[in-house]
Amino acid sequence: MADDKVLTDVPRKSPSLPKLGEQQTYGSPVADPENDAHHQVTDNVSNGAESSHSHDHQAHSHSHDGEAGSHHTHSHHGRAPFTEDEELEERQHFETVVAAFRYYRTHAMKKIARQRNHYQSLTKPQGERLPQFMDHLDALRQCTAINQQFLDKILLQTPFDNTFGDTGGGDGIQSQPVSTFHMDKVHTTLRMFVRDWSREGQTERQQAYEPLVAAVEKYFPKDKCDVSQIQILNPGAGLGRLPWEFARRGYTSIGNEFSLYMLLASNFILNCCQEVDGYKIYPWIGHASNNLSSANQMIGISIPDISPTDLPPGHNFGMVAGDFLEVFDRNETWDCVVTCFFIDTARNVLEYVEHIWHLLKPGGYWMNLGPLLYHFADIPHESCLELTYEHVKTVIKNTGFQMLEEKTDIPCSYVQNPYSMLRYEYRCVSFVCHKPDLKASFVDASGNSLS
Ligand SMILES: C[S@@+](CC[C@H](N)C(=O)[O-])C[C@H]1O[C@@H](n2cnc3c(N)ncnc32)[C@H](O)[C@@H]1O
Is residue 322 exposed (0-12), middle (13-18) or buried (19+ Cβ within 10 Å)? Predict the structure, then answer.
C-alpha cells in the first residue's frame, strides 16, 4: 500500500471535491516542504466528513478532542453519492477550516493588542515597574508569526485540489473574523502535534499509546503470526501517531478521522515531513494564564521527533477520512480495532460497540484505552447517552464480547502543557475484548472444523 493508492470508490458529482471513505497512503516520496517544485503529496485525497463535537467541558480548555464545541454533522453513508446539498456543506466547511487556519495570526494579534492597550493605560509609575512587558508582547508576536507560517505550510500541502478552494496564503488574506469555536480548533491542532509528534509528547504517548501497542503485540505476536496480514483499524486517530506505530511494527494499519483540522494536519506531518525536528511551533503562546515565566509560555516545540517516513519497506499504512460509523462496512474484515480516547466521542456508545463488533472478524480483538468525557454531553440541542463505565461494560458483555483484560485508574494527560501551573490528569480505563469465533468451537476431537 505504500505506493499503490487504495481507494474506496465513492461516486461523485464533482471531481474537485474530496471523497469520504478514501484511503490516503503514507510513506511515499516526501515533499520538500520548503520547495514547491519538489512538492508531491499523495494525491488520493481523503477528506473529513467532519463532525465535530467534543467540547470544552470545563471552562479551562482540556477538551481532549481534535474538535471541540458545536458540530458539523455529516449524514453521508459509506459509499452513497453526495447530494448537491452535502457537497455544498462540505465545501463550506472546508472553507471555514481554511479560514480558521489563516486567521490564526490576526486572532492572536488582537489578543496581544488588548494586552498592549491595557499596559499602555497604566500610570507611568506602574509601567515603569514592569519595563519588560512590551518585550514580552513583541516576543509573543514573533512566535505567533512563526506559528502562522507553519499553519500556512499545512494549507499549502493540502491534498485537496485547488478547485476546492484556495488554500494558499496566510495572515492578512483572511480578513473576515472566524468564530472562537473554530480558532480553538486551530489551537488544539497545534497542541495535537505536541502529543503525537514531539519529544514533549512522549509522556502522553507512553501513558496512552504504549499499553495499546503492547496489547496488540501480545495478542498478535510477531513470532506466531505474519503481522503484515493482521489488519488493525484505529478510529479517531488524531494526527496518526498510534496507527503509524502499528505500521512501523509491520502490521497493516489504518487510521480514521473525520475532523478536517486533524486530516489537514496529519496529511502534512505524515506525507510532507521527513526531517526530524524540521519545524518549531509555539503551542502554548495562546494561553496567558498559569505560566511561570515568559520563557515557559514561549517554549518552542520541535517536530517531528521521528521521521514519519521511517516505516518498514512494503508497509501497509493509510488514513481513511470520514465518520467511522459510515465509512467502514460491517463486513467482519478487521483482526483488531484499537480505540484511544475515542469511545466517548459517541452520541450513543452502544452504536460504537455494536459497530466495532460487526467490523471485527470472529476471533478478533478490540483494545481500548481512554476516559469517558462524553463529547456531546451538555451541548445545547444535542443529546448523548452518558453511561458510566459500569454501564459500558454491561453493553460490551451483552453484545457478545469477552473481556479478557481490564484496568482502571490509569493516569493519562491529554494535550497537556507540561510547564503550566494548571494540569489535568485523567484516570483512564483500558480493556482488551475478544469477539468469540463461534465457528471455531465446532471442531472434532482432532481439531478439524465441523462447520
Ligand atoms: C479525543 S480525540 C483522540 C485522538 C487520538 N486517538 C489521541 O488519542 O490523541 C478523538 C478523535 O476522534 C475523532 N472522531 C470523533 N468521532 C469520530 C467518528 N465518528 N469517526 C472518526 N473520527 C472521529 C475526533 O475528530 C478526534 O480527533
Answer: buried
